[in-house]
C-alpha cells in the first residue's frame, strides 16, 4: 500500500481528535475534517475548525443522522480516523461508528485509543461497556472486510499524570495524594500529541495493516508511586500520602452515578490490577519501536509543565 494521501478525521473537534487533525496536517496528508451541522453556535469549535482550514484542511459538513452525508464524507478519503467520543463523563458515542462501516476505505482507524478492548473480556461492570462497544465496532469492521488499524494508546497523560493517577483530579496537588492500593501497579502514560503522531505514522504502514498497535513508551511504564516521586522531585517536597484500599475504592465507586462508575472501573483495572503493563508487546506491534524517529514525551517532561 502506498502513502494514503487523503485522511478524513471524524471527531476532529474533540480532545484527541483535534490532535489527530494537527498530526495529519503536520505529516503532509491531504486532511479532511468532518464536522456536524449540530455544532450550532459553539464559537470555540468553529474557530478551531477555521484554524485547521487556514492550515490547509478541508472542512466537510456531515451528520450521523444523515447517512448519505456520511457516505459522501467517507468517499473523499483513503483513510478514515475516527475519534468520536467514548468517555461517559463527557459523552459516549462509540456505536455510531457502525454507520461508518462501508467497504470503500483503504484503512479505518476506529475510536479506541485506550486499553485494548480485546484484553478486557473479564472487565467489571459498568465500565466494561466501553470495551464491549469497541469490540462490537471491531467485529463489524472485520465482518465487512474493511482494512483496519487499532490503536491501543494506554492512558492519556492529561487525565492520569495531571491527577497523579487519582480519578477526579487533573491538576497535581502540592500537598497530598491518595495512593490506589499499594501504588505499585505499573501504568503506561502517553502524551496525547504523541498518540496522534504515532497514529498518523501507522496509517501508511503495511506492517500495521489489520493489526493492533500499542503505544508503550519504555520510559513511561511507571507505577503511581513512581509518578508521585517525579512530581515530588519537581516541587521539592514529599506529599502527604493516604492509601485507598481496593475494598474502599469499590465501596466509593458504588455511591457514584453511572458515568462516574464507568470511569472508576477503568481506573480500577489500571491502578489496582495493572491491566496495561501485565503483558508483553512484540516490537512489531509497539509504536515507539515501529517509529523510533518520533521523539516521545517522557512522564518527566510531561509533569514539568505543571510545576
Ligand atoms: P470527545 O468527548 O472530546 O469527543 C470527540 C468528538 O466526538 C467531538 O469532535 C464531537 O463532535 C464528536 N461527537 C460526539 N457526538 C457526536 C455525534 N453524535 N455525531 C458526530 N460527532 C459527535 O472525545 P475524546 O477525545 O475524549 O475521546 C476519543 C477517544 O479516546 C474515545 O474512543 C475514548 O474512549 C478515548 N479516550 C481514551 C482515554 C485514555 O486515557 N486512554 C481518555 C479519554 C478518551 P462535536 O464537537 O461536534 O460535539
Automatic annotation (TrEMBL):
<comment type="similarity">
    <text>Belongs to the NmrA-type oxidoreductase family. Isoflavone reductase subfamily.</text>
</comment>
<dbReference type="InterPro" id="IPR036291">
    <property type="entry name" value="NAD(P)-bd_dom_sf"/>
</dbReference>
<dbReference type="InterPro" id="IPR050608">
    <property type="entry name" value="NmrA-type/Isoflavone_red_sf"/>
</dbReference>
<dbReference type="InterPro" id="IPR045312">
    <property type="entry name" value="PCBER-like"/>
</dbReference>
<dbReference type="GO" id="GO:0010283">
    <property type="term" value="F:pinoresinol reductase activity"/>
</dbReference>
<dbReference type="GO" id="GO:1902125">
    <property type="term" value="P:(+)-pinoresinol catabolic process"/>
</dbReference>
<dbReference type="GO" id="GO:1902138">
    <property type="term" value="P:(-)-secoisolariciresinol biosynthetic process"/>
</dbReference>
<protein>
    <recommendedName>
        <fullName>(+)-lariciresinol reductase</fullName>
        <ecNumber>1.23.1.1</ecNumber>
        <ecNumber>1.23.1.2</ecNumber>
    </recommendedName>
</protein>
<dbReference type="InterPro" id="IPR008030">
    <property type="entry name" value="NmrA-like"/>
</dbReference>
<dbReference type="Pfam" id="PF05368">
    <property type="entry name" value="NmrA"/>
</dbReference>
<keyword id="KW-0560">Oxidoreductase</keyword>
<keyword id="KW-0521">NADP</keyword>
<comment type="subunit">
    <text>Dimer.</text>
</comment>
<dbReference type="GO" id="GO:0010284">
    <property type="term" value="F:lariciresinol reductase activity"/>
</dbReference>
<feature type="domain" description="NmrA-like">
    <location>
        <begin position="5"/>
        <end position="303"/>
    </location>
</feature>
